[in-house]
Design a protein that fits this description.
The complex is a heterodimer of chains A (890) and B (276).
Chain A: H1 2-28, E1 31-39, E2 51-56, E3 63-68, E4 74-80, E5 85-92, E6 95-103, E7 107-112, E8 130-133, E9 136-140, H2 141-144, H3 152-156, E10 162-164, E11 170-172, E12 175-176, E13 180-182, H4 193-196, E14 204-210, E15 229-234, E16 240-250, E17 254-264, E18 268-277, E19 291-293, E20 296-298, E21 325-338, E22 343-367, E23 372-397, E24 402-421, E25 425-447, E26 450-469, E27 484-505, E28 508-528, E29 540-559, E30 563-580, E31 590-594, E32 597-605, E33 608-620, E34 631-634, E35 637-640, E36 647-661, E37 666-687, E38 693-717, E39 722-739, E40 742-759, E41 765-780, E42 784-798, E43 804-817, E44 822-834, E45 841-848, E46 855-861, E47 865-872, E48 877-886
Parallel strand pairs in A: 1-7, 13-15, 35-38, 37-39
Antiparallel strand pairs in A: 1-4, 2-3, 2-5, 5-6, 8-9, 9-14, 10-11, 11-12, 14-15, 16-17, 16-48, 17-18, 18-21, 19-20, 21-22, 22-23, 22-47, 23-24, 24-25, 25-26, 26-27, 27-28, 28-29, 29-30, 30-31, 30-32, 32-33, 33-36, 34-35, 36-37, 37-38, 38-39, 39-40, 40-41, 41-42, 42-43, 43-44, 44-45, 45-48, 46-47
Chain B: H1 2-18, E1 22-39, E2 48-57, E3 61-66, H2 67-78, H3 84-95, E4 106-111, E5 117-122, E6 131-136, E7 142-151, E8 155-164, E9 167-174, E10 192-198, E11 203-221, E12 226-227, H4 230-248, H5 256-267
Parallel strand pairs in B: 6-12
Antiparallel strand pairs in B: 1-2, 1-11, 2-3, 3-4, 4-5, 5-6, 7-8, 8-9, 9-10, 10-11
Helix pairs in contact in B: 2-3, 4-5
Classes of the chains: A mainly beta (890), B alpha+beta (276).
Chain lengths: 890, 276
């Protein structure tokens, strides 16, 4: 009873409160009824629909009411405002905007208006330059192209966040891309440089960046990836496209030829290419199918290992066409056809042939225990590259099954010659052939809500390699000859088999993986002196071994809208059987390793992504390191190993933060990595009395720590078509090394800063400017060196008329090693291009190396030496070329 | 799946070339382009689609439709004096790559003289019948003076809210553009609606360009239409899906699963703007 009374009392109170609030709000915001009429010059009623807006107190005050006039010019407003006055603004496309101020009280008003037809400002309809939708960012090619560009690769290199390196490899926000699709098909796989540098940009509508891309359709939305892929979207109705180019010039005689027709149909794609030049244009990136992405090597089955060779030269940090003296030929054919049920058949064949000459002067400083050894050598090298790759791939990437079978053949017939002039002359020759054949099979299939993965790789390699040279001193006690030949023959066979079972449990996916790997290798080395028929055992090795490895992995992945957590715990057992026919290294060791890893990805908002990962790895060196006989790797380096396999334990941390705001054109990323590793063996670097270096592995516990911090900010200001960028990197490496038996610490720090500006607003000109500042400090117990690099690039292109392009490209390089002279090099190229209106053909004249700069100096630093190399630069050259895009788009 | 897409494409093409009898109702003075992002299936973000829409504004009327449909209209005007078979043969190949999505197969005409009067002429999945919805769309807009923004370069906008046919909407309008109009059936704000979306973000219209038009004619079809209410059209659309699914029996699918998926896609095509 009491309860019902209380309820009634409470109800009464609530009603009272409501009424008070209701009336007070009406008192506070009392309505003012305004009736009005619009009339014209002749006092006539205005017969049009105009908008009447009532603002509080002033024209910029809040809108308190609005209405529309009817066909008699009458309007009515109910203004809710505590203001003193109201400003009525009358707007229409047919009258002049009129302002009328009245007191805030109910009234009737007459507002005179003047007729005037006026129009709103026109906005040219344009697609935004960058569009973001879910996990796809789309770059509109026409927004980023310049008149001087030909290929889509030229345009991609200028898009914010993209980076295309000298090898043609594309990175996005600092990470190499995983796939390069053309209209959703992966025709060229890792040879995408062929398409990237030959598809005319006029055939391409947009470039799509696929974030967190899962290439296996069956696993989309199930298994997370942090990889990025690129999809080239062609313009509608583009079927035939490609590039035709022929050029000639001098002096000496230069030629360039490129015929690359491409066909892209809905169910078939084909790209063929024949290219030839001696103008310094490197064709290798369009041939090789090996790349590193996501921490793993793709196309590794075609990888050739060089066990020996003439002294290699570090590539200087200038573009190859400045110094590469080549005669390159490339013939390639790639074909893909789609069949029934999302099946694709793909054939890729490529032949590459090149003769490269290099002339350089090398000053090497080796920091030994008590002294620094300085060597000056003039080296003329000649490299001949011959390589053939053939691949046939069957793929079924359907929603119910993923199946790939690829058979690959790779043949390499490389040879190298070098003539080295020091205090005496030396001639070095090497033959480095390699043959490989492999088959890769992958299957993913769902069965009763679970997923089964089967993977099998079978790979056979054969590498008989030789090095022949005349030693200028007594090299080894067992060697006394005017000519020496080092032979290394390596034969190996690998079978990698993996079975994985994944089963989803709500937001979790748990997986169990069993891997069984078998590796069989024969490794024979011998130093032949041509004086004795028999070779001493100290100059020979003959190892044959096999490894049987079993790995079991349990991993679990948790995923919700914002977070993906992945933990894996692999346990690996490897058993070796090593047979040494010459020395006493035969043994049958076995190793048990636990190599866990974990990662977290957090995406609080679609534009922001943070990733943390940690992994622990235990690895052992190849049993080939048991070779106790001497091996001459180059004319100045002998390697001799101890009868032991080195073990390395490493823990690696990665953290990254990426932010993308495509509508603002703002992209940024921050990456940090740290690795700490321990090893039980170290290479002792010492110098022999003959002037040769001996690298000998010995038992010695050692550690190394590597820290790396890199950041990138790119801002594309679409209103002025300008990109502003800043890259900053910091690397720090601490390790222990062994020089002449002395154990010491070595530390190296690298700081790089790279601001850039790209201006593409004007139709009459475009320009880009970038600076790279690099500071390297290397410090050990024996030495401390500092090297500073400074490079600047300024490119200006002018378009006085749409058909004409005038361009000037300039580069300034400066390097300074502490205590030595500063080296400067300035390069300039001049370009004129004419493209007749409405035609696909264009004519191009270039003067390369306008200033005829002849030398470029580069420094290479490691824990033991600094090598300063002076490269010969291609002389001033004039070249005239005719360039044509194939297809309908101009 | 491709078969289903082909069938839908054929329907869309038929709908484009279907309307030939037209009359001029006004002259277009301004053209506004909207990027329209919408879901095919209610609540399923994976079915998000995009299409370009156009609002043509005249002195007394406005017309809102798909750009592809507008393009076809202009071709019909161009070949108006040709015999129908000749006109179709000339038009078909030009519009073959420009389909009108099923959910956007309509025209919305607003009559300025009669406040709130809206005429919706559209087709369901049964493409041969035209439906006409004449209604007075009374939207109660609530302007939020505290919210302003700059959209499309430098157009200052204010925010307003309303409710229509089962959804809550947020609109950004530009008082500096004195046209009380906007995409679809939305109008009645003191300035052009520059951006409009429902609070679930299942339908979003964004102005992405405007051009002055030479005074070209604004046409409306004079084909026979079945008059229905807005609710009636929604029901007719649902009913047409059943007919369409029945028609799928006449097509050959590679397997039963493909057919089930095709039927599923039709059934899930349910995200009309009006949700009654």
């Amino acid at each position: 009873m009491n309860n019902s009374k209380e309820k009634a009392r409470a109800m009464g109170k609530a009603i009272t409160c409501f009424l008070i609030l209701f009336f007070s709000s009406n008192l506070l915001f009392s309505q003012t009824l305004i009736r009005g009429t619009l009339y014209g010059d002749q006092d006539e009623e205005v017969n049009l629909r105009a908008t009447v807006i009532a603002h509080a107190n002033s024209k910029t005050g809040d809108i308190v009411s609005y209405g529309f006039s009817n066909s008699s010019g009458h309007f009515e407003l109910n203004a809710k405002c505590e203001c003193d006055s109201l400003v009525l603004v009358v707007k229409s496309l047919s009258i002049v905007e009129t302002t009328h101020t009245i007191a805030n009280k109910p009234q009737s008003v007459k507002i005179p208006v003047k007729y005037a037809q006026h129009s709103i400002d026109e906005v040219v309809v344009k697609a935004p330059s960058i569009i973001s939708r879910k996990d796809t960012t789309t770059y509109i090619v026409s927004s980023f192209m310049q008149q001087k560009d030909f290929s889509v690769g030229d345009v991609i290199a200028r898009m914010p966040c993209f980076d295309v390196d000298a090898e043609g490899k594309i990175s996005y926000q600092g990470q190499p891309i995983q796939k390069y699709y053309i209209e959703g098909l992966d025709l060229l796989e890792k040879r995408y440089a062929l398409a990237n540098s030959n598809i005319p940009h006029s055939s391409v509508a947009s470039v799509e960046v696929l974030h967190n891309h899962q290439p296996v359709r069956l696993l989309e939305g199930l298994t997370e990836t942090n990889q990025t892929s690129v999809n080239i979207k062609l313009k509608r109705n583009t079927s035939l496209t490609g590039r035709l180019e022929a050029g000639a010039g001098g002096y000496p005689a230069i030629w360039e030829a490129n015929a690359t027709p491409m066909i892209f149909n809905r169910n078939m794609q084909a790209v063929g290419s024949w290219q030839s030049n001696n103008s310094g244009s490197d064709l290798l990136p369009q041939h090789q199918s090996i790349s590193i992405s996501g921490g793993s090597i793709s196309g590794a089955t075609l990888l050739k290992q060089n066990y020996l060779g003439v002294p290699g030269l570090a590539n200087p940090n200038i573009s190859k066409n400045k110094y590469l003296k080549n005669q390159a030929n490339l013939l390639t054919f790639n074909f893909l056809t789609k069949g029934y049920g999302d099946t694709e058949v793909k054939l890729n064949g490529s032949y590459y042939n090149d003769w490269v000459d290099m002339h350089s002067s090398i000053t090497s400083s080796y920091f030994m225990l008590d002294t620094t050894i300085a060597l000056v050598e003039n080296q003329s090298s000649s490299y001949q590259f011959n390589s053939l790759t053939l691949e046939a791939t069957l793929t079924q990437n359907a929603s119910k099954r993923y199946l790939v079978n690829k058979i690959s053949y790779g043949g390499v017939w490389d040879s190298e010659r070098a003539f080295i002039n020091s205090h005496s002359n030396q001639s070095v020759r090497s033959e480095i052939p390699h043959q490989t054949i492999s088959n890769t099979f992958e299957l993913v299939k769902p069965i009763n809500g679970s997923l089964f993965f089967v993977e099998s790789v079978v790979d056979y390699n054969y590498s008989p390699q030789t090095l022949r040279f005349s030693p200028n001193a007594l090299m080894l006690t067992d060697v006394n000859s005017s000519e020496i030949e080092q032979e290394i023959t390596n034969t190996n066979f690998t079978a990698h088999n993996k079975l994985k079972y994944s089963y989803p449990i709500k937001r979790f996916i748990a997986s169990s993986t069993l891997e069984v790997n078998y590796h069989n290798e024969g490794h024979r080395t011998s130093i032949n002196t041509f004086t004795n028929n028999e070779t001493a055992d100290s100059l020979r090795n003959s190892l044959s071994w096999y490894k049987l490895e079993t790995q079991f992995t349990e991993d679990i992945e948790y995923k919700n809208n914002d977070v993906v957590i992945s933990i894996a715990a692999p346990l690996r057992f490897a058993k070796y059987d090593i047979n040494d026919r010459i020395h006493d290294a035969s043994e049958t060791p076995s190793y048990l390793s636990f190599i866990p890893r974990a990662s977290v990805r957090y995406t609080p908002i679609p534009n922001l992504s943070a990733r943390l990962s940690v992994s622990y790895n235990q690895s052992i060196s190849s049993p080939n390191s048991l070779a106790q006989g001497s091996v001459i790797v180059s004319h100045r380096l002998i390697k001799k190993d101890l009868s032991a396999i080195s073990e390395r334990n490493a823990i690696r941390y990665n953290a990254s933060l990426t932010y993308r705001a495509p509508t603002l054109g703002l992209f940024s990323s921050l990456h940090y990595s740290r690795s700490y590793s321990q090893s039980n063996m170290l290479v002792n670097k010492s110098v022999l009395t003959s002037g040769m270096f001996l690298y000998q592995s010995i038992n010695k516990d050692n550690t190394s720590v590597v820290n790396n911090l890199s950041s990138e900010v790119k801002w594309y200001i679409s209103s002025i078509k300008t990109t502003v960028g800043l890259n900053a990197d910091f690397g720090d490496m601490s390790m222990q090394h062994l020089v002449s038996g002395k154990f010491a610490d070595f530390n190296q720090q690298v700081v790089t800063l790279k601001p850039s500006l790209l201006f593409n607003y004007s139709k009459l000109w475009s320009a880009d400017y970038s600076i790279e500042l690099k500071h390297i400090t290397s410090e050990s117990e024996f030495s401390k060196t500092t090297v500073r690099y400074n490079s600047q690039k300024i490119n200006i292109f002018m378009y006085p008329k749409p058909q004409h392009i005038l361009g000037l490209e300039t580069e300034l390089y400066s390097s300074k090693r502490e205590g030595q002279d500063k080296h400067d090099a300035v390069f300039a190229n001049l370009l004129y291009s004419f493209k007749p209106k409405g035609k696909r053909i264009s004519f191009r004249m270039q003067c390369r190396n306008l200033l005829n700069t002849s030398k470029y100096v580069n420094h290479y630093e490691d824990d033991f030496s600094i090598i300063t190399t002076q490269y010969d630069i291609r002389p001033r050259e004039f070249i005239f070329s005719v360039l044509m895009s194939l297809g309908r788009n101009r | 799946m491709r078969l289903l897409q082909l069938v839908i494409l054929l329907i869309a093409s038929t709908s484009i070339v279907g309307a030939q009898n037209v009359k001029e109702i006004d002259k277009v003075s301004h053209i506004f382009y909207y990027d329209y992002s919408y879901l095919h299936e209610r609540g399923n973000r994976a079915t998000e689609k995009n299409h370009q829409m156009v609002l043509e504004v005249g002195n007394s009327f406005s017309k809102f439709q798909s750009v592809n449909k507008a393009f076809a209209d202009s071709l019909f005007a161009l070949y108006a004096n040709e015999p129908p078979s000749v006109a179709v043969s000339k038009i078909m190949h030009q519009v073959s790559g420009l389909p009108v999505p099923i959910l956007l197969n309509y025209v919305v005409i607003k009559e300025y003289a009669s406040i709130n009067k809206t005429i919706f002429i559209g087709k369901t999945m049964e493409a041969s019948t035209l439906f006409k919805v004449e209604e007075s769309v009374e939207l109660s807009w609530e302007i939020d003076p505290t919210r302003d923004s700059t959209i499309l370069g430098n157009i200052n906008c204010l925010m307003a809210r309303t409710t229509y046919a089962g959804r809550d909407y947020i609109a950004w309008f530009a008082p500096e553009i004195p046209i009380n109009d906007g995409p679809y059936k939305f109008s009645g704000l003191p300035g052009l609606i520059v951006k409009l979306y429902d609070t679930q973000r299942e339908h979003m219209f964004s102005l992405n360009g405007m051009v002055k038009s030479y005074p070209k004619p604004m046409y409306v079809t004079t084909e026979k239409c079945i008059g229905v209410s807005s609710r009636g059209f929604t029901r007719a659309f649902e009913a047409s899906k059943s007919d369409f699914i029945d028609q799928l029996d006449n097509f050959t699918f590679s397997n039963e699963e493909m057919k089930i998926r095709a039927v599923g896609r039709v059934v899930n095509l349910n995200n009309l703007i009006e949700q009654f």
